[in-house]
Write a structure and sequence with these properties.
Elements (H helix, E strand, L loop, with lengths): L6 E7 L16 H9 L1 E7 L5 H10 L3 H4 L18 H7 L3 E6 L14 E4 L10 H5 L2 H14 L6 E7 L5 E3 L2 E3 L23 H30 L6 E7 L14 H4 L3 E4 L8 E8 L3 H8 L14 H5 L9 E7 L3 E8 L3 E6 L10 H4 L2 H11 L6 E5 L17 H17 L14 H4 L4
Helix pairs in contact: 6-7, 7-12
């Protein structure tokens, strides 16, 4: 398998987590489910950050946000360091033509990413530029892909990044939600509540509305896979469907609890990867780039911090991860935290005086956020959190001071600190200033 040069389609979207039928959620996603049936679904794939730009930056560089420089949102002046290399740059050096369709939200400067061909899309978050959601609707991007294959002018092997704006919340009359005449919401009375939140009407309404956006994503995936088959490329194309972090609800997006950092990952490569597999190994989104390089028979540069999981796909000897790391520093406010997750435990270190649960601006100003913000933000967050994920999968009971778990706490705390030191995490030196700190200095 090593040394193959398949075409590569990377399909990704906003704020979806694992809210898909193939991950056991109560929603019909037949086209994404079909990809999973024909390929491998990763049950325990997690993002390095519970927010957009930092997570996407890790996917594209194979490096953690505090290492590659993208510690906050790209439209808030955070940026990759000048020497960072991205997935399209690596693949271009391996002989690929590289294409961008739709959203990317890693930089406002598209030439920084190394794509040869930019077909459509925008740079900014839909929360900042409402027009972006129209340009990058899943339907519109899928139609552009369809035309791309119909023209039959593409050069193989090709790499195409395909980004949808859904399921990002949109602002409407002061609230952020998923409502839009383009999407058909489910019946709030019939949806299943989220197990880590109270069953309140506003939360149900938001989940039901989100269903319409998810169905639009699934329809677009169907359009793309049909176009790929019609072009005669399906058997020579590696398709990756993934998400950047968890859904935009309280205790999910913006938190290092599992609902915040969980991400879907489905990989299909006909004739090479056996279909119908479900892999429960711990995998991080920093691992995707080194896996692709490994597949192509390329050396993985030392600076890449992820590890290849290619052996999981080829049934060769694989040394599984003992743990993975996640982090957050800046979003719409300062929210510094670092986390380590094993198969059984989660340890989170918080580095600032913060409310018990942080809500990103779009979640705070939503129906779901209004239902629970007083309850979730009333107390002060502890500096350390420890959860036994086997006994407490929804991370409700903090065990950090429980004597029975003292050895677990100390072990995970030590691993986290060693990782921070090894990666020269700036939090070890003190608070991290905002990206526009130098602009603020003359006013202080």
């Amino acid at each position: 398998m090593v040394g193959n040069t398949p075409n590569i389609l990377l399909i990704h979207c906003h704020d979806l987590g694992r809210y898909l039928g193939c991950y056991g959620q109560d929603i019909d996603t037949p086209n994404i489910d079909a990809l999973a049936d024909d390929g491998v679904l990763f049950e325990n794939h997690y993002a390095t950050a519970p927010q957009c730009s930092p997570s996407r930056g890790s996917l594209m560089t194979g490096r953690y946000p505090h290492v590659n420089g993208l510690m906050g949102l790209a439209h808030e002046d955070w940026a990759l360091h000048p020497n960072e290399r991205t997935m399209p740059e690596y693949l271009k050096q391996s002989g690929y033509s590289t294409h961008l369709f739709g959203l990317q939200h890693i930089t406002d400067h598209l030439d920084r990413l190394g794509y040869e061909h930019i077909h459509s899309g925008g740079n900014l978050s839909p929360a900042v530029s409402p027009a972006i959601h129209e340009i990058n609707r899943a339907r519109n991007i899928a139609e552009t892909i369809d035309v791309f294959f119909e023209k039959d002018t593409f050069e193989e092997p090709f790499f195409a990044s395909i980004g949808f704006f859904e399921t990002h919340r949109r602002q409407d009359n002061g609230l952020y939600g998923f409502t839009d005449t383009e999407y058909e919401a489910a019946d709030p009375a019939e949806i299943e509540p989220l197990p880590y939140l109270p069953d309140e009407p506003g939360i149900r309404e938001d989940i039901a509305a989100m269903h319409g956006m998810i169905q639009a994503i699934d329809d677009a995936v169907g359009t793309i896979t049909i176009a790929l088959e019609a072009a005669g490329c399906a058997d020579e194309t590696l398709v990756i469907f993934t998400t950047e972090h968890g859904i935009a609800f309280p205790r999910a997006k913006g938190s290092c609890y599992d609902p915040g950092i969980e991400a879907a990952l489905v990989i299909r490569y006909p004739g090479i990867i056996d279909g119908g597999q479900r892999c429960d190994d711990l995998v991080s989104n920093v691992d995707i780039l080194p896996t692709l390089l490994d597949l192509l028979g390329k050396a993985i540069p030392e600076e890449i911090e992820g590890q290849s999981f290619l052996p999981l796909l080829t049934e060769e000897m694989y040394y599984p991860r003992d743990n993975l790391f996640a982090e957050m520093t800046w979003h719409d406010t300062y929210n510094p935290m670092r986390a380590i997750r094993t198969d059984q435990y989660k340890y989170i270190r918080n580095f600032w005086h913060l409310p018990s649960i942080y809500l990103t601006n779009d979640v705070f100003k939503s129906k779901a956020g209004r239902e629970v913000h007083e309850q979730l933000q009333s107390g002060r967050r502890p500096y350390e959190e420890l959860y036994d994920l086997e006994k407490d999968p929804y991370e409700q009971t903090n065990l950090v001071d429980d004597p029975q778990y003292e050895h677990v706490r100390d072990q995970l705390r030590g691993r986290l600190v060693r990782w921070m030191r090894h990666t020269s995490d700036p939090l070890l030196e003190g608070p991290v200033p905002p990206a526009d700190y130098e602009e603020l200095l003359p006013r202080i």
